[in-house]
Specification:
The complex is a heterodimer. By secondary structure, chain A is α/β, with parallel strands linked by helices. In chain A, about 35% of the residues lie in helices and about 30% in strands. The radius of gyration of chain A is 22 Å and the shape is elongated. The chains are: A alpha/beta, B alpha/beta. Chains A and B meet through α4, α6, α7 and α9 of A and α4, α7 and α9 of B.
Chain lengths: ~280, ~290
């Protein structure tokens, strides 16, 4: 079973929900937690695991043999990303712009281009009892966010009962890469006009992908039903609520799992997990 | 003209609330640009009257002409993005996975694949209710945020500032350390980092500073919610000190940020003087900086 946690707006509590759900679930089943927020991966701060392996992730970039190249310029013409520029005397490659589509390599009539590699980041694998943590970590200054998400997701550790994917913020390309093949998506929102606005954007994105999803309201305040009203109007299931409380914020600041550190929170996450598992099994039937 | 770009690495540190408030204090001396095009929020506080709505076209998607397709499968074999697969004996392109690289278009022996331009979003030139020029954008649902729309918003904001001889461009940047962020701060005269006193905030700050240093950009820092965890707040100050980043202010955890948002207001429009004074100190500091 695959469940992604997304949010639209940053800082609404995606990682808080992902790590606590994984922690609670791991008491009854085996769990893979994938940290796909590869630009700023934080799940490892909350889950205590032992490091196992660390894999460098590479992407192809073109290498031009200037002895063979006759400066025909076809490579620059076919590159949609302006990553390879043919000048009168030589060819320049801009690795940070390259999408590794192999277009230049395929189209070069002289066979002057071969495969080189650039590092875009790492996939870090660590584990604790019943939980595997797989973290994608983008190399700073690299921009292949979606490509690294794609590769991190492909790391499969079988057999596993539940896969949880902590996704990046926003509602564009990286989020779509993270959530596109999920059984269910949890959108974590907060009851502010910013939270609501961005929830609506990401909800539209997942609807367009024809995926089923529900909402967790974080930082909930009594008397404020902004998110509940939106969900009621749009027929979206609310999976649970986490109150706006200073002790939760302080515990989070220390990178604690609030389902351990704060009395009564474990029950809230157990209930959310049960609800999610029931909903997903209904969807699958 | 001075260009101040506000970024945070981690989301939810208070970046937009603080940028919005600084923009209000700057008033008609500044053009404000919302470069968080993937989750733009500033317009919710600025009530802009949209004077200009412009379409933004960027990137391509492959389309198959089945009258020409000979079912050879070369496109599927050559696509590096797993965007082409055979469904019901037809080669079908998954628009979500297609990166618009055109490799299938060039390699198709039957010339059955063409590339169409994507409408990536819209950008707007408006006046805010506070008298600033305000440039913002909306990325289309499911579009790629390559940083091109971010660059466009910034470019337009700078053009307005130059034409009207205004002193400041204030930019609300995107989260993370990827392409959109790099686009948002290229060419900036100063970068203002808004972090928070949480372990996650510190972790993300370290990656953001690595990025800023890689591009040799100059930055200062604000620690928001500093009293959530004084130990982490001190660690952030030490880290900034080691990296020659001046911590220009520390703001306590305060409900006014949440309450002001509920009323659709910036924190400087409320009666909470302690926070209002903090924002004024920050703005005065930014004005005096080289």
């Amino acid at each position: 079973m695959k469940i992604a946690i997304a949010s639209g707006k940053g800082g609404t509590g995606k990682t808080l929900v992902a790590t606590n759900l994984a922690h609670i679930a791991a008491k009854k089943m085996t769990v893979n937690l994938y940290d796909l927020d590869v630009e700023e991966p934080n799940s490892h701060l909350f889950i205590n695991t032992t490091p196992i392996s660390n894999e460098d992730v590479k992407m192809m970039i073109p290498v031009v043999d200037n002895e063979v190249c006759n400066n025909c310029g076809i490579c620059s013409k076919v590159c949609e990303y302006h990553a390879i520029i043919s000048l009168a005397e030589n060819v320049l490659v801009f690795p940070e712009l390259c999408h590794s589509c192999y277009g230049c390599l395929e189209m070069c009539p002289e066979g002057a281009i071969s495969e080189g590699f650039k590092s875009i980041g790492q996939i870090i694998y660590s584990e604790s009892e019943n939980t595997n943590l797989i973290t994608g970590k983008l190399k700073v200054s690299e921009s292949a966010t979606a490509a690294l998400i794609h590769k991190t997701k492909k790391k499969l550790i079988a057999p596993i009962d539940l896969n949880i994917y902590d996704s990046p913020p926003g509602s564009s390309c990286p989020v779509i890469e993270a959530v596109k093949d999920m059984d269910y998506i949890i959108l974590v929102s907060e009851p502010t006009p910013f939270g609501l606005h961005d929830l609506n954007l990401v909800a539209q994105t997942v609807k367009q992908l024809d995926l089923s999803f529900g909402v967790i309201v974080n930082k909930a305040v009594e008397g404020n039903s902004l998110i509940e009203d939106y969900c009621a109007q749009n027929n979206i299931e609310i999976i649970g609520k986490i109150d706006q409380r200073i002790d939760i914020a302080q515990s989070y600041a220390k990178s604690e799992l609030i389902s351990e550190s704060i009395k009564g929170m474990d029950k809230i996450f157990y209930n959310m997990l049960d609800r999610i598992l029931n909903t997903v099994s209904e969807v699958q039937v | 003209m001075k260009e101040i770009v506000v970024i945070s690495g981690k989301g939810g540190t208070g970046k937009t609330s603080i940028t919005a408030a600084i923009g209000v204090l700057a008033g008609d001396q500044a053009v404000v640009a919302d470069c968080d095009v993937d989750a733009a929020n500033l317009h919710l506080l600025y009530n802009p009257d949209s004077q200009q709505d412009n379409e933004f076209w960027s990137g391509k998607t492959a389309v198959v002409d089945y009258d020409k397709c000979i079912d050879c499968g070369i496109c599927e074999e050559k696509c590096r993005f797993d965007a082409i697969s055979q469904i019901n004996a037809k080669y079908v392109i998954d628009e979500v996975s297609c990166e618009g690289c055109s490799v299938c278009h060039y390699l198709c022996p039957a010339e059955a694949i063409s590339m169409i331009e994507n409408k990536a979003g819209n950008w707007f030139k408006s006046k805010s209710q506070f008298g600033n020029w305000f440039v913002h954008a909306k990325l289309g649902i499911g579009q790629e945020n390559s940083g091109k729309l971010v660059s466009k918003v910034k470019e337009e904001a700078k053009r307005i500032a130059e034409n009207e001889n205004l002193s400041y461009v204030i930019v609300d940047g995107p989260p993370g350390v990827g392409c959109p962020v790099i686009s948002s701060f290229s060419g900036a005269s100063s970068i203002l980092i808004v972090t928070e006193a949480t372990q996650s905030g510190l972790h993300d700050l370290k990656r953001l500073v690595e990025l800023v240093e890689y591009f040799k950009a100059k930055s200062t820092c604000i620690i928001n919610k500093f009293d959530l965890n004084l130990q982490v707040s001190n660690e952030i100050e030490e880290f900034c000190n080691d990296h020659k980043i001046e911590v220009i202010n520390k703001i306590p955890y305060h409900s006014v940020f949440f309450d002001a948002l509920q009323d659709g207001k910036t924190v400087v429009e409320t009666q909470e003087l302690s926070i209002k004074n903090k924002i004024e100190e920050i703005w005065n500091h930014l004005k005096e900086m080289e």
